[in-house]
């Protein structure tokens, strides 16, 4: 009788982590960063139906890189958690930190379970506050750990290179147009250092805008408004674009 093959727990977890990281790296990168009036989500996404960014609750947005079917299941679970908590207690009791804890427990359980493969996803949960100091951004890797981010964060693809660039270029008080341009510049940098062009129609952009009078702060930026922001040189064009906002898109 042959001796059963033994793999140490440390090696097994390392193999699972490497499997998940490779799956996430195959996807396109996305960027979440703070600007003066809120938080902007920017990613390269040619699909108009399979979104990387979504609204979870009034002030909370969700971003994900990796396998669509896996992070879509997590998004739906997050919406159900938020709706139930807001209905049972109060809408103000639904927070990004609470949602991040729920996602962390789910991802951690899946990652440590030998019965199923780890999720190939990396999440960002963001909440816009009344002031920039109240903004919250949490990054959740595949293993369920929580990283409290400030200013900017990149996930998926070559996220390390993009994060380094953002750390050097991002500053507080940027306008939406400036933040959007910085995110696009970061995403367009290839691993070999060259710069490529990402057309507006291949971008998915959304914001959590604290200045919106509605309780729901999430809005997608599309069409002419996106083009004008990418071409804007100052706050005047940005204000003009905001004035032309149409109905809410989800």
From TrEMBL:
Biased composition (Acidic residues): 241-250
Domain of life: Bacteria
Listed GO CC annotations: proteasome complex
Record text on activity regulation: The formation of the proteasomal ATPase ARC-20S proteasome complex, likely via the docking of the C-termini of ARC into the intersubunit pockets in the alpha-rings, may trigger opening of the gate for substrate entry. Interconversion between the open-gate and close-gate conformations leads to a dynamic regulation of the 20S proteasome proteolysis activity.
Pathway entry: Protein degradation; proteasomal Pup-dependent pathway
Subcellular location: Cytoplasm
Pfam families: Proteasome
InterPro entries: Ntn_hydrolases_N, Proteasome_alpha, Proteasome_alpha-type, Proteasome_asu_bac, Proteasome_sua/b
Region annotation (Disordered) ranges: 230-250
Keyword vocabulary terms for this entry: Cytoplasm, Proteasome
Primary localization: cytoplasm
HAMAP family hit by this protein: Proteasome_A_B
Function: Component of the proteasome core, a large protease complex with broad specificity involved in protein degradation.
Subunit structure: The 20S proteasome core is composed of 14 alpha and 14 beta subunits that assemble into four stacked heptameric rings, resulting in a barrel-shaped structure. The two inner rings, each composed of seven catalytic beta subunits, are sandwiched by two outer rings, each composed of seven alpha subunits. The catalytic chamber with the active sites is on the inside of the barrel. Has a gated structure, the ends of the cylinder being occluded by the N-termini of the alpha-subunits. Is capped by the proteasome-associated ATPase, ARC.
Family: Belongs to the peptidase T1A family.
PANTHER family: PROTEASOME SUBUNIT ALPHA/BETA
Protein name (Swiss-Prot/TrEMBL): Proteasome subunit alpha
Species this chain originates from: Streptomyces longisporus
């Amino acid at each position: 009788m042959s001796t059963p093959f033994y793999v140490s727990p440390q090696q097994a977890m390392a193999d699972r982590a490497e499997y998940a990281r490779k799956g996430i790296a195959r996807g396109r990168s996305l960027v979440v960063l703070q600007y003066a009036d809120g938080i902007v989500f920017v990613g390269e996404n040619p699909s108009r139906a399979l979104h990387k960014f979504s609204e979870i609750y009034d002030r909370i947005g969700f971003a994900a890189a990796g396998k669509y079917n896996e992070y879509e299941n997590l998004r739906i679970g997050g919406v159900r958690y938020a709706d139930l908590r807001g209905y049972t207690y109060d809408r103000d009791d639904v927070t990004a930190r609470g949602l991040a804890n729920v996602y962390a427990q789910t991802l951690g359980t899946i990652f440590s379970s030998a019965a199923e493969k780890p999720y190939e996803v990396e999440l960002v949960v963001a909440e816009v506050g009344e002031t920039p100091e109240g903004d919250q951004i949490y990054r959740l890797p595949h293993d369920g750990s929580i990283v409290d981010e400030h200013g900017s964060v990149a996930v998926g693809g070559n996220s390390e290179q993009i994060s380094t660039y953002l750390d050097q270029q991002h500053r507080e008080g940027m306008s939406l147009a400036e933040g959007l341009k910085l995110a696009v510049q970061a995403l367009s940098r290839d691993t070999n250092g060259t710069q490529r062009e990402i057309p507006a129609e291949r971008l998915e952009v959304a914001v959590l805008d604290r200045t919106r009078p509605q309780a729901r702060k999430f809005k997608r930026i599309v069409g002419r408004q996106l083009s004008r922001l990418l071409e804007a040189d100052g706050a005047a064009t940005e204000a003009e674009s905001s004035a032309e906002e149409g109905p809410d898109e989800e």
